[in-house]
Write a structure and sequence with these properties.
GO terms for molecular function: DNA binding. Keywords: Coiled coil, DNA-binding. This protein has 17 helices and 15 strands. The protein is α+β, with helices and mostly antiparallel strands.
């Protein structure tokens, strides 16, 4: 069985002399010229696009095939990133437009009602608010139409150098200011280049070879110079004393594997990719290496003894430990206070939460189960919660980052990670397990996620019981149950259940238990501490439920 692998990137700062810095700048300029022309070639209709061979002949290709692979991968990543962001923007706009349309309908009705009551000042204020929201709606609709048209035409308008810097040119008038802008524009467009490697190449990459240095925990990088620059800078550029603060073990393993491969051809080499990036402080080197978990299958933590179900939320990770029979043993919450944090702080917070999660999984010796869900679906789910708190959380929500870190840590620690379908996990958790075990909605969903990994069938209860503040008990029966897996039925069940949850008459929520002791425990746990709920009323409600004939 092939073990899963993950490509990780580690960074270090380059300490260069003037000639090396100039050589990297010239290298980046040549590389980006090819990149811009190749991107322009891809924007043409497919019938007019040039093949790689035709493009190299027309361009007078200054690089080898391996260097051109870096150009193609860079352009491919940019296009995929832009398309993903565009899809996310369309999802966000769709939800915003629907919510704003509902708000406009309510404002229209309120305006008519106020006008009938004869309140001209209030009606005028409402009409101004209505007009402003209509302008916002039209603006969002124009953005949505433009993005849809762009997607249908398969366009990817990427600005190399940045749109912000490009717009600055319009405000410049003097010649000196324009010359300074041109310099910054050129640096922004030619500040990086990528060299990809392969497992069958020497030292993992043909054009940049990373080998051990004489200094301990240090490496030497030999960069092959393009033919156009060899007359000035020579054949190779040697950068010595490279040290990495993070990823020392992964890089050392890859370098050792490539070194042994030179003497033993039966050993597969480790591909290394190098990205050179220039900023205000100088050049940075980012090395990408594949990291694998334990090679022996017996060393991996599997699902034999149970699993850890995880529900990812904008502000926390809801975690439930299950045994092999799908019964909950304990639950945990790992907070994610991401609001009002910058990117570095968010990355640190997410990393700490994921580390604690994987420590918990390793301590319990159990695999991890998460939802097989993308960011668009997750964000669409939470955007339906029309509340400022959810808007603030979604602004900082990094679902993809959380998933990526969980996958990385699972491979590093040798913990199996499983994905399950996310359909109706929240609904089933609320109906079946929230009150039974005293869980929150999210922990109940995590329990359903863990049980779904084992294929347990989640049938809705035969009856639901509600109790209001007066102690009145009411029983409701779900629609006629159908076969498991019929999502049309679950959709119907959700439409039936949501009005019951939102009913103001039943403050305590809905109960559905088959044993009196579970009902008593749940009522005490759910009603204790609520405003207006006295201990006498809690005891009275518990007694009424226990004596109910339906139980």
């Amino acid at each position: 069985m092939d073990m899963p692998t993950k490509t990780l990137t580690f960074e270090t700062r380059l300490d260069l002399i003037h000639e090396q810095d100039a050589a990297l700048c010239q290298y980046a300029e040549l590389w980006n010229q090819v990149k811009f022309h190749w991107f322009a070639n891809l924007q043409k209709p497919k019938a007019q696009q040039l093949s790689r061979t035709q493009f190299m002949h027309e361009m007078g290709m200054p690089f080898s095939y391996r260097v051109f692979q870096g150009v193609r991968q860079s352009i491919k990543g940019l296009i995929q990133s832009y398309q993903t962001n565009r899809n996310n923007r369309l999802v966000t706009l769709d939800v915003k437009i629907k919510q704003l349309e509902k708000t406009l309908n309510k404002l229209n009705k309120r305006c008519d009602h106020v006008a009938e009551k004869g309140c001209p000042q209030q009606a005028k204020k409402l009409r101004n608010t209505l007009r402003q929201k209509e302008v916002k709606l039209r603006r969002w609709q124009r953005k949505q139409a433009a993005l849809v048209a762009e997607k249908q035409e398969n366009k990817t308008p990427i600005c190399f150098g940045g749109r912000k810097l490009l717009k600055e040119r319009q405000a410049l008038e003097t010649g000196s200011a324009i010359e300074g802008w041109k310099q910054r524009w050129h640096e922004a467009r030619h500040r990086e280049f990528l060299l990809v490697g392969s497992h069958d190449e020497s030292w993992g990459c043909q054009n940049a070879q990373l080998s051990p240095s004489e200094q301990e925990d240090a490496y030497q990088l030999k960069l092959l110079v393009p033919h156009q620059l060899r007359a000035t800078f020579g054949t190779t550029i040697t950068i010595d004393h490279l040290q990495f603060k993070h990823g020392k073990a992964a890089i050392a393993q890859a370098v050792w594997q490539n070194q042994v491969k030179k003497h033993d051809k039966s050993i597969k080499g480790q591909p290394l990719s190098f990205r050179f990036k220039r900023d205000k402080k100088g050049w940075r080197l980012l090395v990408s290496v594949e990291v694998a978990g334990p090679k022996e299958q017996a060393e991996w933590i599997g699902d034999d003894q149970g699993v850890i179900g995880v529900d990812v939320n904008p502000d926390h990770l809801a975690v439930v430990e299950l045994d092999r029979n799908g019964n909950p043993l304990q639950h945990r919450t790992f907070d994610l206070p991401l609001h009002y944090k910058n990117d570095a702080q968010r990355a640190a917070i997410i990393g700490d939460a994921v580390r604690d999660l994987m420590d918990f999984a390793a301590q319990q010796s159990k695999a991890v189960v998460i939802e097989k869900l993308d960011f668009q679906q997750k964000k669409r789910h939470y955007q339906k919660q029309d509340h400022p708190q959810y808007a603030r959380m979604l602004n900082a929500f990094a679902y993809g980052k959380i998933k990526d870190l969980i996958e990385t840590q699972s491979i590093k620690r040798g913990i199996h990670l499983y994905h399950v379908k996310p359909a109706y996990t929240s609904l089933l958790g609320r109906m079946k397990y929230r009150d039974r075990h005293g869980f929150s909605d999210h922990h109940a969903a995590a329990l359903v996620i863990g049980r779904r990994h084992y294929g347990f069938k989640e049938k809705p209860p035969k009856q639901l019981m509600g109790i209001n503040a007066k102690g009145t008990v009411k029983t409701e029966h779900p629609p006629v149950r159908m076969a498991l897996g019929d999502y049309q039925y679950y959709n119907k069940l959700q439409r039936w259940y949501q009005p019951l949850e939102k009913s103001l008459d039943f403050l305590s929520g809905w109960r559905h238990f088959r044993r009196v002791n579970r009902v008593s425990y749940s009522v005490e746990a759910r009603l204790d501490g609520r405003p207006g709920m006295s201990p006498d009323l809690i005891q009275e409600s518990t007694t009424l439920l226990s004596a109910h004939p339906a139980l």
